[in-house]
Design brief:
The chain has 84 residues and is an all-alpha fold. The longest helix is centred in the N-terminal third of the chain and has 31 residues.
């Protein structure tokens, strides 16, 4: 099955949103570990739920391996930038 350009853009957008959401979720869980405030834990868990939903949507357009490769590449770039 050949993927069209518009489908590739959809997958790229979903993966980009997933990576940004993952950074936010990790930030929330880090704050929970520091402050032990349940709010941060619930927020981080909700964001990870959104990530799972977006992954399901992205699998409708592209295979698991391709989505994971894109996720890894975007994660390396964006999370390194966020950490800097």
């Amino acid at each position: 099955m050949k993927i069209t350009q518009i489908e590739f853009l959809y997958v790229s957008l979903f993966v980009l949103i997933i990576v940004l959401a993952e950074g936010c979720a990790q930030y929330c869980l880090k704050n929970y570990a520091k402050t032990n405030t349940l709010y941060w834990f619930i927020l981080g868990a909700l964001i990870y739920g959104i990530i799972a939903y977006l992954l399901v949507i992205s699998f409708e357009f592209e295979k698991l391996a391709i989505v994971n490769i894109m996720w890894g590449a975007f994660s390396a770039l964006i999370l390194t930038t966020m950490a800097y």
